[in-house]
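Pipeline run #58 for the internal structure catalog. This entry was flagged by the ingest filter as a single-chain record with no existing model, so it goes straight to prediction. Upstream metadata was stripped on purpose; only the residue string is passed forward. Reviewer on rotation: M.T. Logging verbosity set to normal.
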Amino acid sequence: MADRRRDMVSAVFGLLTFLVGLGLILFAFKLAFDIFTVPPRLALDVKPGVPVALDKAADGMFQVVVRVVLLVAMAGFGSMVANRGIKLYAAERGRDKPKGD
């Protein structure tokens, strides 16, 4: 009885971990969509008819690059968390054991 309850808690915890990872991935995609829908002239702070200030444009470009790197890291972290949740859930079901054991 206690073993079955522990298995059920493990399955629920694995499922919740998977859902948290999936949420992180979806949040990263939403942030990426928000970043990439901003017109480049706004992201780089370039105004029409005004000479481009290289320092402001470079700063804007650096901020875009940092955001993209953070989004990639966030999506990677989310996928690792989701993968761990799947492994926890599969371990409860006994599906992580090699065939023949």
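catalog note: The chain has one domain: 2-93.
catalog note: DSSP finds three helices and no strands in the chain.
status: ready for reviewer M.T.
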